[in-house]
Design a protein that fits this description.
The complex is a heterodimer of chains A (324) and B (323).
Chain A lengths: L4 H26 L14 H9 L6 E3 L5 H6 L4 H8 L33 H15 L5 E6 L6 H12 L4 E7 L2 E2 L2 E2 L20 E5 L3 H16 L5 E6 L11 H4 L7 H8 L3 H12 L4 H24 L15
Parallel strand pairs in A: 1-2, 2-3, 3-7, 6-7
Antiparallel strand pairs in A: 4-5
Chain B lengths: L2 E3 H15 L3 E5 L13 H9 E3 L4 H13 L3 E8 L7 H8 L2 H4 L9 E6 L15 H4 L5 E3 L4 H13 L4 E6 L6 E3 L13 E4 L4 E5 L3 H13 L5 E5 L2 E3 L3 H11 L2 E8 L4 H12 L9 E5 L8 H7 L3 H12 L2
């Protein structure tokens, strides 16, 4: 598959935006500037980016608690996302959702979700909605290895397979469900093999290679759009940071992985890999990449400034938006 | 006006609303065949795209209804028996009910959930429960409990047109009850109680299948010059508090009859509202007539012992009027 230069630049920009946003969110949470729980996806940028690069604007996604990257990749604005995690009224959800619940309907982002596995049936239904409405939009469900042990995973794959719905199930296998290693609680080594149980294609993908993710997702999206039904993609990746920022407080001094394992995965950084590929293939110059980094730094600084200077919601807004 | 059954009223309401809006569709357990006949024949009118049998996987397909609503369609989602909602609690309570609020008003959630509830003779605790109280504490949902065929049609049509998640609880024992039901456009607004019978001595707020029981008790007591006003709230959320309070202001006495349980039930909720806002109207304690706080049993004498009935409604009325 020949990928245009514009698309390559867009993917790099998206990965940088995620890396910068997540690093800042972590720092702000550690500095106690943000209320609530913050889950960041540093190290997992390629799966969010490669998947969403294969979608068009009217396609939809559902996301999970570690959702910032998915939202940025689907076009979410950094300033309104940042304002939301600050709890400001200028945030995407007027401060009612927070880090785990950012939504932008106009971009087909049906929302991050705080309940593990909840996004799969919603994505399945979104795909059903497209069929009922006679549209060829595709929906992607992002979820983790942990969610693949939820009943909703199995019920959704079955339902989507039976009805041949235009949905792509994207499992980001980062090795851990909270603090529990995936292999200690999961009956299979590869989540992708679970597709066999529902008679749909399942594919293992190098989740740290944005180009590979893009290629496999493009194929799955094309199948879905052509009415050929769902696909399960398993993007193998790794969570550099903890489950939740500030998790030391949960762990009570304990630990659940070796630092050497983290360092090993850092060598597979999706951004560095892409930069190397650019240099080797000669497709994009380092000056072009540096320009993107500088622009992203500025965009993030503006987003933080926007969030900090925005107003908090008024207490009187507490009863707004319960019912339509 | 034509006389039709409660179940035919359901069928008519769904058919009319699906006729009216091509984005309205039906999904659920055995809706093609039509469990109890409520959705019988709709497949012939609307085809397999819009009338869909789901696998028996409530979390999956109820969650799919949420996604379909977010995609701009208007699902009618049936789970057969209301106790099966427990299998989809997350999808109803965490997702359907909350996503509008959590998204700052971006999501609209026009879903109608339908299920049969209540004791209908030997179905035991997992197919006989009155479960609406479990949803009373979940802001974002609307709860509808029709008591006769006419309201069934009018309330269901309003529920389908509503842009919020609405759960319609259909009492199994009312299925074959018949009533005068207007043909065509017949809408009963959500949040408007019905005064089923005017009276002066005591208010009986009766919910769902308890309405007919309260009416028969009221008729009996009329002969003793005990004048009973029967109010059917028709929807528990929104609740027509004004209608209830206005009635209590007139009668100064209230009995609340509900097939649900005593603790934490719909009757408890209404009693608390009357105590809060109508205390000065009251000349007697508020009485609740509910089912016992036991799982609804299987064997007929046990089921009868558990469920609120006419005798208990009558005893409560006599208690508050002192006769």
């Amino acid at each position: 598959m020949d990928i245009s230069k514009d698309k390559l630049l867009e993917m790099y920009r998206t990965m940088q935006k995620i890396r910068y946003f997540e690093s800042k969110a972590r720092d702000l949470a550690m500095a106690a500037e943000l209320p609530g729980f913050v889950h960041v996806s540093i190290g997992e940028e390629a799966s969010a980016t490669g998947v969403c690069a294969a979608l068009r604007k009217t396609d939809r996604i559902t996301s999970n608690h570690r959702g910032h990257g998915h939202l940025i990749a689907k076009g979410g604005r950094l300033d309104r996302m940042m304002a939301e995690i600050f709890g400001k009224r200028t945030g995407y959800c007027k401060g009612k959702g927070g880090s785990m619940h950012i939504v932008d309907y106009s971009l087909g982002i049906l929302g991050a979700n705080g309940i593990v596995g909840a996004g799969l049936p919603i994505a399945t239904g979104s795909a059903l909605g497209a069929v009922i409405a006679g549209k060829d939009d595709v929906t992607v469900a992002f979820f983790g290895d942990g969610a693949s042990n939820e009943g909703t995973f199995h019920e959704s794959l079955n339902l989507a397979a039976v009805w041949k719905l235009p949905v792509v199930f994207v499992c980001e296998n980062n090795g851990f469900g909270e603090f529990t290693p995936m292999d200690t609680v999961t009956s299979v080594k590869d989540i992708a093999v679970r597709a066999k149980a529902y008679d749909i294609p399942g594919q293992i993908v190098d989740g740290n290679d944005v180009l590979e993710v893009f290629r496999y997702t493009s194929e799955a999206v094309a199948r879905a759009r052509a009415g050929e039904g769902p696909t399960l993609l398993e993007c193998k990746t790794y969570r550099w940071e903890g489950h939740v920022v500030g998790e030391q407080a949960f762990l009570g001094g304990g630990s659940y992985r070796e630092q050497s394992e983290v360092e090993k995965w850092k060598l597979k950084c999706p951004l560095i890999r892409f930069e190397k590929w650019c240099a080797e293939s000669g497709k994009i110059s380092s000056a072009e990449l540096k320009k993107i980094i500088a622009e992203t730094e500025k965009e993030l600084a503006d987003a933080v400034e926007f969030a900090r200077s925005s107003e908090l919601p008024a207490p009187s807004e507490v009863t707004d938006d319960v019912y339509a | 006006m034509p006389q039709i059954s409660f179940i035919q009223a359901i069928n008519q309401a769904i058919a009319e609303e699906m006729e009216r809006d091509p984005l309205t569709f039906l999904m659920g357990e055995d809706v093609v065949l039509g469990a109890f006949g409520a959705t019988k024949g709709l497949i012939d009118k609307f085809g397999a795209k819009r009338v869909r049998n789901t696998p028996i996987s409530e979390a999956g397909f109820v969650g799919a209804a949420v996604g379909a609503a977010m995609a701009g369609t208007r699902p009618i989602c049936e789970v057969e028996f209301a106790s099966f909602f427990y299998c989809a609690f997350d999808q109803i309570c965490n997702q359907a009910a909350k996503l509008r609020y959590m998204s700052g008003g971006q999501a609209t959630m026009p879903i109608t959930f339908r299920a049969v509830y209540g004791a209908m003779g030997g179905a035991a605790a997992q197919h006989s429960e009155t479960v609406y109280a479990q949803f009373l504490s979940v802001p974002g949902l609307k709860l509808v409990v029709p008591s006769d065929a006419s309201d069934m049609k009018g309330l269901l049509k309003s529920a389908i047109r509503d842009n919020n998640p609405v759960i319609v609880f259909e009492h199994g024992a009312l299925g074959w009850s018949r009533g005068d039901v207007p043909d065509g456009e017949h809408l009963v607004p959500l949040g408007k109680a019905a005064v089923k019978r005017p009276g002066d001595n005591v208010t009986v707020v009766a919910i769902g299948a308890m309405v007919a029981k309260a009416m028969s008790v009221a008729e009996k007591l009329e002969k003793e010059k005990i004048s009973v006003e029967v109010i059917d709230p028709r929807t528990l959320v929104p609740l027509d508090e004004n209608a209830i309070l206005a009635s209590v202001e007139k009668t100064n006495r209230i009995v609340i009859a509900d097939e649900g349980h005593l603790r934490g039930g719909a009757a408890a909720d209404i009693a608390a509202i009357v105590a809060d806002k109508g205390f000065d109207f009251l000349d007697a304690p508020i009485r609740r007539v509910t089912s016992l706080d036991v799982p609804i049993p299987f064997s007929p004498p046990l089921e009868k012992a558990a469920i609120a009935d006419e005798a208990r409604i009558e005893a409560a009325i006599r208690d508050v009027v002192g006769r």
